[in-house]
Amino acid sequence: MKLDIFCLSDKGCVRSGNQDMAGAGLHLIRDDQTSFVHDLGDGKSFFLLIADGMGGHQHGEMASSYTLEELRDMLFDGSRDWSAPEQLLSGEIRRISDDLNRKSAEMQLDKPMGCTLTGFVLAGGRTLLVNVGDSRSYRLRAGMLRRLTVDQTIHERDMVPFPQGKAIYSCIGGGISPEAVIEDYAGRLLPGDRLLICSDGLTDMVSENDIELFLAEGRPTEAGSLLVEHAKAAGGLDNVSVIVADLIEDEPDAGDTAHAGSVALDAGATIHSAAESLAAPVELTGPAENGAPAQPSGPVAVVQASDAARTEDIEEIPDESRAEDLSGTGSEEACENC
């Protein structure tokens, strides 16, 4: 299996600097873009993550940079024991958050630095979806968009408007403790799926209906560029960062005609004919197996999540359950997402 990846991070039309950072493996992107194909067959650790900084221009940049740099170092540290990847990742997020809060205290900042985090981490033979804050991860399948994460905002949790605008109750740093939500996505992503990971600079400017339309265009490079262009055309009030990645199958060996379904790698990344029922779901960490159909597996429960946590589904998948909250108890203190 391979990932065809495009990353773009732009400061937008209003902000003087860019507090976002996008990460794809060894690549960390700010005010730049990159595209490449990553082979998942080697079983090595990898990530697709976006962090949206807060706490003022300079300090927001520091928070998002530090978070992705630390996670990258952890992921490519060959000495780490990945036998319990959810616990390892959750512990690392808490450590990074504590570091940022300590730095904020030492610098005597009026507004503690922090950041959001969302995307996929591939490690220990697992595919993990991680979310902290209000950046988002999506999947496009057969032209239909599905949001995979839940915004950790006061409005989303309590279903009441926040008088001072949008505020998040969970972030990395920011003077509070993160409520990291980590799901096991093994077996829930198929060849032909297109992934979108983005900061709220996109979702605040472009509706999900339009995101679905633009995300289906061309290859990841075209789709990602189009999304950022439309966010800026709508005003570009915030930094906007996107990662678009297609999950594609390896080319079959010569003479191999036993192929379960035809995967379209371009516009919409749809799966033709009866691929949804004929092609077994595959893990990102290895090639799909030929043989009998398999049902998608649900997420591994770590800690019971609150009833307020929910995913806004456009497409219903029977076996998929809600995100699980690793932190247990949530902080009632909110930090504003600048």
Q: What does it look like?
A:
The longest helix has 22 residues, at 85-106. The chain has helices spanning 57-75, 85-106, 154-158, 200-203, 208-215, 220-233, 275-278, and strands at residues 2-10, 20-24, 27-29, 32-39, 46-54, 114-115, 117-123, 126-132, 136-141, 144-147, 167-168, 172-173, 181-184, 194-198, 240-248, 335-336. With 338 residues, the chain is of the alpha+beta class. Strand 2 (20-24) and strand 3 (27-29) form a beta hairpin. It has one domain: 4-Layer Sandwich (Phosphatase 2c, domain 1), CATH 3.60.40.
**Radius of gyration, rounded?**
19 Å
Give the strand tally: 16
From the helix content, strand content and strand pairing, which structural class follows? Answer: alpha+beta
CATH class: Alpha Beta
Low-confidence stretches: 256-333
Major beta sheet summary = 8 strands, antiparallel
CATH topology (fold) name: Phosphatase 2c, domain 1
Overall pLDDT score: 80
Helix content: 10-25%
Corresponding CATH superfamily: PPM-type phosphatase domain
Strand content: 15-25%
Terminal residue distance: 38 Å
What is the number of independent domains?
1
How large is the count of helical segments?
Answer: 7
> What global shape is seen?
globular
H/E series:
EEEEEHHEEEEEHEEEEHHHEHE
The CATH architecture category equals 4-Layer Sandwich
